[in-house]
Amino acid sequence: MDLAYLWFWIVGFLFVGYFVLDGFDFGVGMSLPFLGKDDISRRQIINTIGPVWDLNETWVIVAGACLFAAFPEWYATLFSGFYLPLLVILLALIARGVSFEYRHQRDSLRWKRNFDRMIIVGSALPAFLWGVAVANIVQGVPIDADFEFTGTVLTLLNPYGLLGGLTTLLLFFVHGVYFVALKTDGKVHADARRLAVKAGVLAVAVAAVFVAWTVFAHFSLPVLALGALAAVLLISSVVANLRDREGWAFGFGAATIMTAVLMLWFALFPNVMPSSTDPAFNLTIENASSTDYTLTIMSWAALIFLPLVLAYQGWTYWVFRKRVTRDRIEKAAQLAH
């Protein structure tokens, strides 16, 4: 296989990992106003991702670095055309990260509530804007003969892009609520299961429209098969949650996001950024990639370091695999006082 095509799929794999892992982080953050009835329950929810949220976030850094090195033309056009949405995502991620670290630094209820709001907004904005961005990349945006984006921010706020954003927002929300149910006990666990039912039904309805639109607009057998599989997996996650099988529900939710991203990657192939101005101006895998020498060095680096990163992340999840119980949070709060 040509190295440029290999790296197209490696970049896709990195974004799959990011959306699956940071996706449930976003969902956990968005669930705070629905499940956090008091400070103890909010701490219980936040602590489910406390040991892993920053590790999950590094996937987007690696994906961005690989995109820059493997496909510099794609990177340049994407970041110039999508500059404002990507900046908003970056600021939201910073605000969310700061909130996780500073929320517990004072006992003031107002202090904690302000940082809770930053967590909620810092989770919801990226969850929505990533969907808008990816949907627009797949659909195509105005690009001229010099591979420069000629639209505006309003160009990205089209029906398909907005539907993509709403779809990722709901999928990540449901994914996060499944994770809360998996990792907590007591009232938070029970409330998360009930919330997942309502949100899951809404996610199924919205995602079905988005998948159908994508299949009709970019029809191919892989896109059709992956779209159908994503629908089955999402419905399976809702059924598993109804049967009190939160582990299966979370697993099906993760598989749904993985399959949906792969569907979009197949819809994009062999382009990396189609032009809505003229198909002759499409950025493709071949005209957007780096030299073979650069891709060869990157391939050896990925072969050596990627298994180590995956092993370390797997070990981290294994160490912090136990539930975050309300009793443990209450005892910690008593000791702090």
Automatic annotation (TrEMBL):
Originating species: Microbacterium lushaniae
Lineage: Bacteria, Bacillati, Actinomycetota, Actinomycetes, Micrococcales
Keywords of this entry: Cell membrane, Electron transport, Heme, Iron, Membrane, Metal-binding, Transmembrane, Transmembrane helix, Transport
Gene Ontology cellular component terms for the protein in this record: cytochrome complex; plasma membrane
UniProt-listed GO biological process terms: aerobic electron transport chain
Name of the featured protein: Cytochrome d ubiquinol oxidase subunit II
Mode of membrane association: Multi-pass membrane protein
Keyword Ion transport (UniProt): no
Stretch forming the signal peptide: none
